[in-house]
Amino acid sequence: METPVRISFQGSTPSEALTNLINEQVDALERLHGRMTSCQVVVRVPDRHHRTSGLYSVNIHAILPGNIDIDVDHTPPADERFADPVFAVNDAFRRAKRLIKEKARKQRGEVKNLHERVERTLDRPPS
Asked: Which of 4, 59, 60, 97 has an alpha carbon within 20 to 30 A of 88's alpha carbon?
């Protein structure tokens, strides 16, 4: 990567375990597409004092060669699985991988064209 990964934690001090997990996931993204130009990950930690949602939110902004810009800005639904920070990180990176695959496919021109007419014939058994 051209610039180091920027990881920030909002609402808490940085967690070494989550930082290691995020770095592993970023490495997996780089293996998927190639080198990354930059990557920023923001982990929003729930406020334990105000009994708000209690759910973690992870946002990812990555830039890859070929003008591929990846933004994962997913606010978790009322799903208790997002109370686990590891699940929230893995879910955000799963979304990022899907976006990278979709954008790389489009960049290569491997997009379905719904406007083409497909000629089909029915195979009928001989009478």
From this structure: 4
pLDDT in tens, 20-75: 999 999 999 888 877 788 999 999 988 765 545 688 899 999 988 877 789 998 77
- The reported pLDDT for the residue numbered 48 is 65
> Which residue is listed with tokens 């290569």?
108
- What interhelical angle do 85-107 and 16-33 show, nearest 10? 20
Domains of the chain: 6-107 (3.30.160.100)
| Residue 113 phi, psi dihedral angles, 5° rounding | -105, 110
Angstrom distances, CA of residue 118 to CA of 81, 114, 115, 121, 123: 44, 10, 9, 10, 16
